[in-house]
Design brief:
This protein is mainly alpha-helical. The chain has a single domain, classed as Fumarate Reductase Cytochrome B subunit (Up-down Bundle). Helix content is 65%, strand content 3%. It is built from 4 helices and 2 strands. Strands 1-2 form a two-stranded antiparallel ribbon. A hairpin with a 3-residue loop joins strand 1 (118-120) and strand 2 (124-126). Helix 1 (12-36) packs antiparallel against helix 2 and helix 2 (42-70) packs across helix 3 (83-112). The longest helix is centred in the last third of the chain and has 35 residues, at 134-168. The structure holds protoporphyrin IX containing FE (HEM) (2 copies). One protoporphyrin IX containing FE is lined by residues 14, 18, 22, 25, 69, 75, 89, 93, 96-97, 100, 155, 158-159, 162, 173-174, 176-177. One protoporphyrin IX containing FE (HEM) binds at residues 14, 18, 22, 25, 69, 75, 89, 93, 96-97, 100, 155, 158-159, 162, 173-174, 176-177.
């Protein structure tokens, strides 16, 4: 199996990035919703900073993923897939990229407009050149509190589509993002 994509399957790098980011996003949804239920206070602030630190890791992986995607060919849709399914797969993938990036940027801006540098665990923090501004803070916070819902809905459609392709259409779509298919 090669590290690069081929015309029929994803390479090792794309697979590793897909699955690390998928785990990262489930983890961020869990951490984000957990802190939402906590009472205001130092524990909630710490939980938010932990969530934000993991999010910085996911943001870095997403940047790598987009760069890698442009440096590689993209496997073609499997043969025999109806046009509307090709089109919806492309749209859902694009929607996932957009929703993930909007959520990441909104999270980072929520923190930065609060006058706080982006935390990375207790190791270091990253100041953004953004002024403290409570209107902007509320704006980005509302975006962040909204966009995870369409993101989660897109992930659900995406997972169901992957299972449908594997178990109903019995094609290689799931295999080529996991164990691989013979080149
Ligand atoms: C794809 C990436 C991300 C996901 C899926 C995600 C998910 C969530 C969720 C579900 C919440 C709870 C929202 C609610 O209370 O209704 C939340 C809150 C929060 N997130 Fe994220 N987040 C992501 C990225 C980030 C980033 C990059 C940062 C900062 C660097 C961040 C900082 C925060 C903060 C400070 C809160 C608490 C404030 C608030 O409720 O809006 N998040 N996140
Ligand atoms: C938060 C979680 C996830 C996100 C954001 C996500 C995102 C994506 C994106 C954007 C693609 C298109 C390939 C690319 O451009 O890199 C893709 C492909 C794929 N994903 Fe996911 N994914 C997630 C979780 C999952 C899960 C849990 C499954 C398993 C059921 C899955 C199965 C697949 C498969 C099989 C492909 C290959 C599709 C093809 O080759 O046409 N994904 N994913």
């Amino acid at each position: 199996m090669t590290s690069r994509n081929t015309s029929i399957q994803w390479g090792l790098v794309a697979k590793a990035l897909h699955w690390l980011i998928a785990i990262g996003i489930f983890w961020l949804l869990w951490l984000g919703l957990e802190q939402a239920d906590m009472e205001r206070g130092p524990e909630k602030t710490a939980a938010r900073m932990t969530h934000a630190s993991w999010a910085i890791l996911v943001l870095s992986l997403m940047i790598l993923r987009v760069v890698w995607r442009f440096m590689n060919e993209t496997p073609a849709h499997p043969e025999g897939l109806p046009g509307w399914q090709r089109m919806s797969a492309t749209l859902v993938h694009l929607g996932l990229y957009i929703a993930v990036f909007v959520q990441l940027v909104a999270g980072a801006m929520t923190v930065a407009t609060n006058g706080v540098p982006l935390p990375f665990f207790d190791l270091f923090s990253i100041p953004l050149p953004v002024a403290e501004d409570s209107d902007a803070h509320h704006f980005w916070e509302e975006i962040h509190e909204f966009v995870w819902k369409p993101l989660a809905a897109l992930v659900a459609v995406h997972v169901l589509a992957a299972l449908y392709n594997h178990f109903v259409r019995k094609n290689d779509v799931l295999r080529r993002m996991t164990v691989g298919v013979g080149d």
